[in-house]
Amino acid sequence: MNHKENQRNLPDWLLKDENYIPQSDKDQFIGKSILSILRILSKIKSQSEYKTDKFHVNAALKVAFTFLLVILLSLSTSYTFIFVVDVYLLVVLSFMDGKEIIKILSVSLAMAFFTFIILFPYILLGNTYTSMIITLKVLSTLIAVNILSHSTRWNTITGALRRFYVPNIFILVLDITIKYISMLGDFSLNMLYSLKLRSVGKNNSKYGSIAGIAGTMFMKSKEMAEEMYAAMECRGFTGEYTVRSKWKLTIADFIYMLLTIGMIAAFILWGRI
Amino acid sequence: MHIPDNYLSPSTCIVMGAAMVPVWAIAVHKVKKEVTRSKIPMIGIGAAFSFLMMMFNVPLPGGTTGHAVGGTLLAILLGPYAACIAITVALLIQALLFGDGGILSFGANCFNMAFIIPFLGYFIYKFIKDRTKSEKGEYVGIIVGSYVGINMAALVAAIEFGVQPLLFTNSQGQPLYSPYPLSISIPAMMIPHLLVAGVVEVLFTTAIYTFIKKVSPGTIFEGAKQKIHTIYGLIVALICLTPLGLLATGTAWGEWGADEIKDVVHGGKQLGYTPAGMKNGFSFNAIMPDYSVKGLPEIAGYILSAIAGVAIMVIIFKIISSFSKTKPKDISNES
Predict the structure, then answer these.
(1) Would you call A40 exposed, middle or buried from its count of C-beta atoms within 10 A (0-12, 13-18, 19+)?
(2) Each residue of A187-207: pLDDT tens digit?
(3) Which domains does chain B possess?
(4) Which residues of chain B have a CB within 8 Å of the CB of A240?
(5) What is the pTM of this model?
(6) Spatial contact of A194 and B193, defined as CB atoms under 8 Å apart
(7) Do B97 and A149 touch (CB under 8 A)?
(8) Which of B4, B7, B57 sits opposite A33 (nearest CB)?
(9) Is the ipTM of this complex over 0.90?
(10) Contacts of A180 in chain B (CB under 8 A)
(11) A chain contacts of residue B211, beta-carbon cutoff 8 Å
(12) Closest to B199 (Cα-Cα) out of B84, B26, B78, B60
């Protein structure tokens, strides 16, 4: 009885069955933007999960060695040396977690494959040497750099740059950037989600909204910068930035240095055959 | 446009990195002077913004998506010097921590994306904006600036690729780095950039600029009126690029010598003769014939000729402008 009474009071349009099928609309670009931002964020957030550095090797040494390896690889003209480096990289990889190995290899192999595709016409012209050696070098370099970024906490990498006399202001800016990529990323991710959720059916103003999101992100970033400076000043920031850390070499460091010397020797022996 | 390692030779990377050092030094100096200390976090956050902006995908015809670099936009919003530092930091994080773009080729990537795009884009924008008083002029400036900026960067990247096989080969003459010559690398880079990436950049830049201008006009960087210095930088860059002319075979179009003109191909046919007026006409012996100076290596001769040429142009323009100095100075935009 009560139920029927209620039905009589409701407006007609509420009682009608509606078969609304939203028109399909292309929103691939929103999905792609969300994915690429998520990828960045997950990589930054996974940083905080690392308990300690994997190999207990000083970050400055690791950065220096990786740079050296990249230079030697680039200078080398022989398969032998690249093979030696690859063996070393595979050994290092084998000590890492399965998940990390997948991440490192998938990124590196994708880029190496892309390089191979670019150089493929050159193979058809009959020059396999150039195409193969460049592809291999790209692969080895990427694995080396990705091992560094996956096995070392990023704040120790930026701290290591200080040892190479990179100006304070750059390192400060670098640290702020990493922090705010994750903050601004979160912020714009939410806006992208809401754009996706609110675009039911055909929404032609979606393209304009992407500009709105990026624009809002810029204004938000300006606001954040001002707040951050106020907070820094309250805590006594004077524009100077010092790193306090002790420089202590462990046995692992010495083994690592021996490896470095071995790599240079390998380069001298076979690098430019 | 992120060049990975091993596409360019280490020496190219060193040259490009060395070219960036003065740019960075000037940018840091300028930012310190222009921007108060309270803006230091702004550069870091601007870098985060530029990093994230490259993650935004824009729909393209045919169902694909692309992303913009946003160099010109950042230069318009933050000023070219702050934009240069911000993009540099974003590129460094990409290279070091995300493996996107090489470590050795970092200098080259910075030259293309943190120097050419923001400075050239901003200069063109400012040049057009200051000469047209209407809002339409401003938007024309943004469109032309962002389009030319990204395409110029692509062209420079293509040149960096294209000179590799000419300069760096092993003992058997096989190229060690990017093997494609300029005749392949330039069209391969330029066609997608002229048709697609440039358009994406323009759309993105104008759309975001329009939004910010509407919502919060006070946040946009107001550069001083006189921005002539930027052109000097560009001229220097062009001078450095002149030796590239050495790599081209043949003579520049329209610059044929009397002995060359009979080989000029027009409409599929060779000209086959030397116009009489050219054969017996006035032959001017320049001080530096064919840009080579005796006793100097050819490249040095080229650079010297270019410097002399620019100096002469500047002198001529200064003389002309000294005659028309009666124009009133515009101070409306100074702030």
Answers:
(1) buried
(2) 888 888 888 888 877 777 777
(3) 10-228 (1.10.1760.20), 264-323 (no CATH)
(4) none
(5) 0.73
(6) no
(7) yes
(8) B57
(9) no
(10) 44-45, 48
(11) 211-212, 214-216
(12) B60
